[in-house]
Structure formats: structure tokens, C-alpha cells
Amino acid sequence: MTTEALQLIKSRADAARFDTYMQAYAQAAAGFALSHISLAAAYDFCQSREDGGRLFAAIFDVHVNFTLLFCDQASATKARSYAPAETLRAGTSALESSIIFDTRMNLHRHNSAFVLRYRALWDKLMGLLILMFVPEKYEQFISASSRKKAFRKIAVRANKVDATLADSLHSLIEKFDNEFRTPEAHGTGALRKWSFIVTELSADKSLNLLWYWNAINDVVSRLGKALAAPT
Fold first, then answer.
1. Which residues, at least 6 apart from 85, have a Cβ–Cβ distance to it below 8 Å?
2. Rounded to an integer, what distance in angstroms lies between the CA atom of residue 190 and that of residue 160?
């Protein structure tokens, strides 16, 4: 396997060392670490493929960004969990005190980082799956005006993804785009509505980010198992 696309990892031992350091980083940042993807196992998985270097680079990219997304999510959860009670009381304004302001600003920082990284990660994941199963269609995928539509078309036609599952994924990403990504990336923002003026928990839509996290966490877990399976 050639690794021109990723000069950092030149051996299985390098991949295992990166795994160790990544685990320690996540542990320090989030309090615990997830280990869905093993770069060492991914290195083995890519050995027999002519496009192994390119595929490994895509796996590496997903692995790093998923870990950072996990840290974003965990940081937002910690900011909310350890905030003084008055900071999260419904009807409280971020301008009532510097403590409340700092807490709300931290929540906004972690949640907005999560939103932008989350949406990018779905594109990376879909691209990785195309590279794994229909590599000849990868350029078609990345050049598409709508990658979520292109993924469904390519993966379903190649019988690599069930149509119902592809539809569910498309609906999830579309919902996320409308609810969070488009306002944050191209508009005046949606998170600010819940970041700086505290609402009742039932009205705080930023809590929906946990549901979206669970969805992508499940997909990455399944990906890690596929990469670790005997070939």
C-alpha cells in the first residue's frame, strides 16, 4: 500500500501509536475516549487494495474529525452540566452576570463547532463509503452539487446500501441542514436563539444535537467494525 496521501503514517506501528495518542487526547478533552475506529486495523484493511493509500487517508480524516466532534459534544455537555443553577434558569439573560455570559458563550462555542464539523463529517463518511465500495464513482460523488443525493443514487444503484437506509440518511441530513447547518453556515445563526437567552429545556433546540450525535456515532461504530472484520 502506498501512502503518498498521508506521509504521517508509514507503518502499522505508526498507526497504532497514533491510536494511542488520539485516545489520550480524547480522554483529556472529554473525560473518556471512544475507540470505534482502529487505525491499525484500517492499515491492515487497506494493504491489499491498489487504492489503499487513498482509502486510508479518507479513513484517517474521518477518524480525526469524528474524535474532534466527540470532544465538541462532550465539552458542550460538560459546560451545561457544571454550570451554576442560575446560569441555566429559564428566562435568564446572558447579560445578567459575567459568569452567566461565560457559560452561555462556552455552550455557543462548542455547539456551533459541533454543527459545522458534524455536517462536514457526513460528507466525509459518504465519500469514504463510496471509496470503499464503488471507488470508480468517487469523482462523480465529490463533484456533485448535492452529495447527499449523489450518495443515495450511487450507493443504491450499486446495491451497497439499502434504499430505505439511504432515504433515512438523506432525510436526517436534510433535517439537520434546515435546522442547524444552513442558518449557522450561511445565515444569521439559529443557535444564538438558545445560547444567550435561556429557555425551558423543552424549547431548547440545541439539545437536539445529542440526537444527531447518536445517529452519526452509530454509523461510525458500524464502520469501525467493518474495517476490523477479517478480509
1. none
2. 35
152, three cell numbers = 443515495
Q: State pLDDT tens for residues 53-105.
A: 999 999 999 999 999 999 999 998 888 777 777 777 777 778 888 888 888 88
Residue in this structure with the C-alpha cell 458534524, named with its chain if needed: 118
Closest C-alpha among 147, 202, 199, 205 to residue 179: 205
**In whole angstroms, what is the distance from residue 124 CA to residue 23 CA?**
21
Q: How far apart are CA 204 and CA 145, in angstroms?
A: 32
Q: Which residues contact 74 (CB under 8 A, 6 or more apart)?
A: 29, 30, 31
Q: What does the alpha-carbon distance between residue 205 and residue 179 come to, in Å, rounded to a whole number?
A: 9
Which residue, among 9, 6, 60, 48, has the nearest Cα to 230 in the 3D structure? 48
Quick: pLDDT tens for 214-225.
999 999 999 999
Residue 68 to residue 95: CA distance in whole angstroms: 30
pLDDT, average across residues 123-137: 93
C-alpha cell recorded at residue 104: 452561555
Q: Are residues 62 and 128 in contact, defined by beta-carbon separation less than 8 angstroms? A: yes
Residue with cell 480522554: 27
